[in-house]
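User:
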Amino acid sequence: MKFSQELVENSPFRARMFMAGKASLELARDILALDQDQFSALFRKSPMKRAKHGGLKRNAVVVVGNVGGTTDACMLDAAPSDEPPPTRRRALVQ
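Assistant: Predicted structure:
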């Protein structure tokens, strides 16, 4: 194609190392393990910061709820969370 280009090593459009090559469930688990300081450091100068830490965690909870197993459901249920209860309940029900 005329307009397509292979991404270069330091392209701003390449996935961050934290995210690169991970399956959705693995990435969701890793995101849920991040605290605010880790999130800020990992996504510094990244459009991912627009989602904010809470929004990214909320989406990760839904992913884990949709594709995770019973171990993941127990982890979500037992883990302390700053997420609103309806989000956690929705993930656990699915």
